[in-house]
């Protein structure tokens, strides 16, 4: 039997890293977790991700895989005998799932930064952009418990880590995501009942305090 | 006839994102109907097919929900028509590398060309060119590693990165002529230079890219709309 060695290099607050944690936990893949200090990056990180020098990185049998969505697909394609499969088998459904994951990935984080790092007009713009994204995605859940159907799929895993940041966005932006997107928040609560998600999401208050600290750091 | 002739591609000729889908359709010998979109006056079909981004390319296959985003479309075509000219390799690690570099090209490399266009003055453009040179040299390393001595990033045959970068060649040549400098050359990127000549003459690519007049017009429009 081949001995697999899986290492996840991450920073605790990264929603991108949380995606990979959830994926590994969902499939029950044993892994070693390595916390990287993003304010004092190790030379190890620059060897496993020389192009971007960012987390998360999955190192599988000494071979690194970078970029969170890339890692999710890699996990799904490598451990094919472990359920749940994150992507459906039908090519059309796969394309749809990839579209929504890509949309969330490209837009949500950047727009959300405007809420907690911007002031005045920029904050309002950020809030409106975030709500637009969340409402569009909410429309895709339908009657299913998860975007992936009965189990967590690619879109669920891509989006749910941002739930830890809802408190931060709401506090800075002075709005309620549950009021604006009740189905989405109901979905998030269903996700949190999964052990893989509960284990992998950072505490929302810790995230809020971290962002406050970061704002002070960048203000200097 | 194959699986279906019911493929429609909404696009516009100067878009290299659209061209890459055309390149893949040609490589897989898939017949399709090209619906030319006027991006200044978007059609009802485009707006209803892609309400989120309102962008091309859009692939409509046999009246199923439209497929959006060029790289997603390419993976879709590769999955449905998997037995004809595979674009992505089958090994998960190699697939991950291919996806990583396609993402790098789209999010880091191409934006440098846009920055070049929008930077006024020769000194400013020189700075951007330096960054472009570094990125091109990185892609040279990627080519050497991926091709493993063979003709394309994909090895013996055109693969995913060949498609992504290859379709941008028309723009690269345009930018080189406009700015009177070279993006790829014999000293810094010799293998990539050879590759550009090879892929530029590939039958499936020739049909997929537009002529220099269309590019010139598109560039002029960009200078006005997004200076």
From TrEMBL, chain A:
UniProt cross-references to InterPro entries, sorted A to Z: Glutathione-S-Trfase_C-like, Glutathione-S-Trfase_C_sf, Glutathione_S-Trfase, Glutathione_S-Trfase_N, GST_C_Tau, Omega/Tau-like, Thioredoxin-like_sf
Class of enzymatic activity (EC top level): transferase
Gene Ontology CC annotations of this record: cytosol
Reactions the enzyme catalyzes: RX + glutathione = an S-substituted glutathione + a halide anion + H(+)
CDD domains reported in the protein's UniProt record: GST_C_Tau, GST_N_Tau
EC number per UniProt: 2.5.1.18
GO MF annotations in UniProt: glutathione transferase activity
Gene Ontology biological-process annotations: glutathione metabolic process
Keyword Calcium found: no
Domain GST C-terminal: 90-218
Chain's role: Is involved in the conjugation of reduced glutathione to a wide number of exogenous and endogenous hydrophobic electrophiles.
Family, per entry: Belongs to the GST superfamily.
Name of the molecule in the record: Glutathione S-transferase
Lineage: Eukaryota, Viridiplantae, Streptophyta, Embryophyta, Tracheophyta
Automatic annotation (TrEMBL), chain B:
UniProt superkingdom: Eukaryota
Pfam families registered for this protein in UniProt: GST_C_2 (PF13410), GST_N (PF02798)
UniProt domain GST C-terminal: residue ranges: 91-227
Subcellular location: Cytoplasm, Cytosol
Domain GST N-terminal per the UniProt entry, residue ranges: 5-85
Listed InterPro entries: Glutathione-S-Trfase_C-like, Glutathione-S-Trfase_C_sf, Glutathione_S-Trfase, Glutathione_S-Trfase_N, GST_C_Tau, Omega/Tau-like, Thioredoxin-like_sf
Enzyme Commission number(s): 2.5.1.18
Sample GO molecular function, one term: glutathione transferase activity
Family: Belongs to the GST superfamily. Tau family.
The name this protein goes by in its record: Glutathione S-transferase
The species this protein was found in: Ambrosia artemisiifolia
């Amino acid at each position: 039997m081949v001995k697999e060695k899986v290492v996840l290099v991450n920073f605790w607050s990264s929603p991108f890293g949380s995606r990979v944690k959830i994926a590994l936990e969902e499939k029950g893949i044993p892994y070693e977790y390595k916390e990287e200090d993003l304010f004092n990056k190790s030379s190890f990180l620059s060897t496993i991700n020389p192009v971007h020098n960012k987390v998360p990185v999955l190192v599988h049998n000494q071979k690194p895989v970078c970029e969170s969505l890339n890692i999710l697909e890699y996990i799904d394609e490598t451990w094919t005998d472990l359920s749940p499969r994150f992507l459906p088998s039908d090519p059309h459904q796969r394309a749809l799932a990839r579209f929504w994951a890509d949309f969330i990935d490209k837009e949500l984080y950047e727009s959300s930064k405007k809420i907690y790092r911007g002031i005045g007009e920029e904050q309002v713009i950020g809030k409106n952009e975030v709500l637009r994204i969340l409402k569009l995605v909410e429309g895709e859940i339908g009657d299913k418990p998860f975007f992936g159907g009965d189990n967590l799929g690619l879109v669920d895993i891509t989006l749910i880590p941002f739930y830890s940041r809802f408190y931060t966005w709401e506090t800075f932006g002075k709005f309620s995501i549950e009021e604006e997107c009740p189905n989405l928040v109901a979905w998030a609560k269903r996700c949190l009942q999964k052990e893989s998600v509960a284990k992998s999401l950072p505490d929302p208050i810790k995230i809020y305090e971290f962002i406050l600290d970061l704002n002070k750091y960048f203000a200097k | 006839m194959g699986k279906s002739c019911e493929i429609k591609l909404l696009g516009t000729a100067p878009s290299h994102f659209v061209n890459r889908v055309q390149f893949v359709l040609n490589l897989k010998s898939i017949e399709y109907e090209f619906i030319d979109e006027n991006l200044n006056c978007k059609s009802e079909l485009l707006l209803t097919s892609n309400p989120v981004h309102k962008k091309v390319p859009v692939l409509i296959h046999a009246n199923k929900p439209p497929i959006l985003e060029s790289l997603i479309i390419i993976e879709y075509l590769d999955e449905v028509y998997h037995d004809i000219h595979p674009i992505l390799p089958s090994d998960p690690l190699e697939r991950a590398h291919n996806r990583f570099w396609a993402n790098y090209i789209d999010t880091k490399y191409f934006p440098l060309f846009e920055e070049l266009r929008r930077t006024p003055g020769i000194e400013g453009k020189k700075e951007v060119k330096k960054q472009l040179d570094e990125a091109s040299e990185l892609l040279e390393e990627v080519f050497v590693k991926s091709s493993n001595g063979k003709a394309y990033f994909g090895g013996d045959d055109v693969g995913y990165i060949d498609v992504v970068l290859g379709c941008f060649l028309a723009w690269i040549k345009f930018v080189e002529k406009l700015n009177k400098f070279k993006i790829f050359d014999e000293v810094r990127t010799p293998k990539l230079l050879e590759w550009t000549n090879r892929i530029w003459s590939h039958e499936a690519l020739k049909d997929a890219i537009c002529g220099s007049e269309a590019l010139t017009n598109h560039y002029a429009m960009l200078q006005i709309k997004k200076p």
